[in-house]
């Protein structure tokens, strides 16, 4: 921002605070040049981000700004904490089940128990047949529709992955435009596959990071784990292409899978902030996504209530942006959009935020026996459960087959071995893995609606997802 914009906010009180504390910039969070009237209805025009010298006392600054009558809320643009996750990479394997038993020719589909659980004890000691999302039955009706766009808010998605590339959303104006030019005038340069919230540009990455040393001098990798690529594969890995795994809404092999837009909130060892995250939601809304897939969240801190704190407030920059997304209608078969969140992996009786708000869907996780996993959050704010998997320990060794199999970036570093994965596929577990199953199901519902001329509201889609389930409460007889 230039000097004039820094020192002229339109408010004497704000100008005084800006001058006193030496703001280096103050500018709108959101791009009001696109869909400005709609954004004003959600109050997005009211949010500004002020930046200060590193030596400024932010608590004093915040108090000064809050004292201005024009300011309703001051919120710190907190940096998001990257979840510590690991994958178990596996080489591509080939089918052993009879070909006639499988709806597609993806060779690793038979290992994806979360789509069609045969109750195999070799995969999970207490596995039970039918504890899955019943994908095979759903695929008889629809396998996807390329008009449905799912925004994966996560690490960057490996857009040239052999099992994802054909189902990536592509911004054709930028793809066919000039490098370094904002060809579609949406405020982002070269955003071919989505938006990088950390860097505020269109450069999607998935294998960045740095080597660091712990207090004992041991080297460890701090960076991308492939989490976003794994999530994207569950939603829409390309089906029936003769390689790797299948996706819930990955199509039939005829170019009809749903499309993945990458909204990158982690970049190597750099993390997004609340305001940058909000801009990612805005980007997804403005560029056609109708499902917001969020395998992240903020756990409630000790002593907090359900309504206080930066994330829980009903008036926060990120929540306003999500509501703007949900209020858009980017699929011709649905009025409104839908946002789906992972409930969290802390074993607590409440979902993480923002998913805990009752206007969004929060997803808990179950294991191949249909029971809650050892780590899942539950109860308050949670809406539906889906396969997240659980590692099984047998003879003092881990068995990963009971977790979720999906796509990985082969070049990412495995934090357990400090070496590259070396394969495009692997296992992960968590409500992060359960969440994209529900996003994939939502995408299938919309695909079926598009194919059959059905019009839904986002409330109806929410009700379809949360009511088309099996009750497991009467099976929860154990104790913690």
Which residues form runs of ≥5 with pLDDT under 50? 1-7
Oligomeric form: single chain
Measured as a percent range, the helix fraction is 10-25%
Number of strands: 21
What is the residue-mean pLDDT, rounded to a whole number? 89
Number of helices: 11
Q: Could you give a short account of the major beta sheet?
A: 8 strands, mixed
Rg, nearest Å: 22 Å
Strand content: 15-25%
Distance between the termini: 54 Å
Shape: globular
Helix-strand category: alpha/beta
What does this structure look like?
- With 480 residues, this protein is of the alpha/beta class.
- Helices cover 21% and strands 18% of the residues.
- It contains eleven helices and 21 strands.
- It has helices spanning 3-7, 12-21, 36-41, 58-66, 135-138, 172-175, 227-236, 274-286, 317-327, 431-451, 458-467; strands at 23-28, 48-52, 88-90, 149-155, 194-196, 209-213, 219-223, 259-267, 270-271, 291-294, 334-335, 338-342, 361-366, 384-387, 392-394, 397-399, 404-407, 413-414, 419-420, 425-428, 456-457.
- The strands form seven sheets. Strands 4, 5, 8, 9, 10, 12, 13 and 14 form an eight-stranded mixed beta sheet that branches.
- β8 and β9 (270-271) form a beta hairpin.
- α8 (274-286) runs parallel beside α9 (317-327).
- The protein is globular.
- The model is unreliable at 1-7 (pLDDT under 50).
What's the short version?
The protein is α/β, with parallel strands linked by helices. 21% of the residues lie in helices and 18% in strands.
SSE blueprint and pairings:
Blueprint: H1 3-7, H2 12-21, E1 23-28, H3 36-41, E2 48-52, H4 58-66, E3 88-90, H5 135-138, E4 149-155, H6 172-175, E5 194-196, E6 209-213, E7 219-223, H7 227-236, E8 259-267, E9 270-271, H8 274-286, E10 291-294, H9 317-327, E11 334-335, E12 338-342, E13 361-366, E14 384-387, E15 392-394, E16 397-399, E17 404-407, E18 413-414, E19 419-420, E20 425-428, H10 431-451, E21 456-457, H11 458-467
Parallel strand pairs: 4-8, 4-10, 5-8, 10-12, 11-21, 12-13, 13-14
Antiparallel strand pairs: 1-2, 3-20, 6-7, 8-9, 15-16, 17-20, 18-19
Helix pairs in contact: 7-10, 8-9
């Amino acid at each position: 921002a230039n000097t004039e914009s820094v020192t002229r906010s339109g408010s004497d009180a704000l100008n005084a605070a800006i001058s006193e504390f030496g703001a280096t910039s103050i500018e709108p969070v959101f791009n009001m040049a696109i869909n400005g009237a709609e954004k004003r209805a959600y109050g997005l025009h009211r949010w500004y981000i002020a930046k200060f010298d590193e030596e400024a006392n932010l608590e004093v600054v915040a108090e000064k700004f809050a004292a201005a009558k024009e300011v309703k809320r001051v919120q710190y643009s907190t940096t998001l904490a990257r979840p510590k996750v690991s994958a178990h990479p596996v080489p591509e394997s080939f089918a052993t089940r009879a070909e006639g038993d499988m709806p597609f020719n993806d060779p690793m589909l038979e290992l994806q128990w979360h789509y069609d659980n045969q109750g195999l004890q070799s995969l999970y000691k207490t596995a039970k047949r039918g504890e899955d999302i019943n994908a095979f039955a759903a695929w008889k009706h629809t396998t996807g529709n390329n008009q449905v766009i799912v925004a994966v808010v996560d690490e960057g998605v490996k857009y040239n992955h052999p099992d994802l590339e054909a189902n990536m959303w592509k911004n054709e104006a930028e793809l066919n435009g000039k490098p370094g030019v904002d060809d579609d005038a949406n405020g982002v340069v070269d955003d071919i596959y989505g938006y990088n919230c950390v860097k505020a540009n269109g450069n999607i990455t998935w294998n960045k990071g740095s080597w660091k040393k712990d207090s004992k001098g041991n080297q460890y990798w701090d960076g991308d784990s492939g989490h976003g690529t794994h999530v994207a594969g569950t939603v829409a890995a390309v089906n029936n292409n003769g390689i790797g795994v299948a996706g819930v809404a990955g199509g039939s092999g005829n170019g009809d899978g749903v499309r993945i837009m990458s909204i990158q909130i982690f970049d190597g060892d750099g993390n997004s902030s609340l305001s940058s995250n909000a801009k990612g939601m805005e980007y997804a809304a403005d560029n056609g996504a109708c499902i917001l897939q969020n395998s992240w969240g903020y756990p409630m801190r000790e002593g907090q209530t359900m309504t206080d704190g930066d994330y829980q407030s009903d008036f926060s920059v990120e929540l306003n942006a999500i509501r703007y997304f949900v209020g858009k209608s980017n699929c011709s078969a649905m009025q409104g959009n839908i946002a789906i969140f992972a409930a969290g992996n802390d074993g607590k009786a409440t979902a993480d935020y923002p998913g805990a708000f009752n206007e969004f869907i929060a997803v808990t996780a179950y294991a191949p026996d249909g029971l809650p996993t050892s780590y899942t959050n539950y109860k308050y704010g949670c809406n539906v459960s889906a396969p997240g998997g659980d590692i099984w320990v047998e003879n003092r060794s881990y068995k990963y087959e009971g977790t979720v199999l999906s796509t990985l970036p082969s070049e990412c570093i495995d934090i357990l071995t400090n070496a590259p994965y070396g394969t495009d596929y692997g296992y992960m577990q968590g409500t992060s893995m359960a969440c994209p199953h529900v996003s994939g199901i939502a995408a299938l519902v919309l695909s079926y609606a598009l194919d059959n001329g059905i019009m839904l509201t986002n409330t109806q889609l929410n009700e379809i997802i949360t009511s088309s389930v099996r009750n497991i409460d009467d099976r929860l007889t154990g104790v913690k």
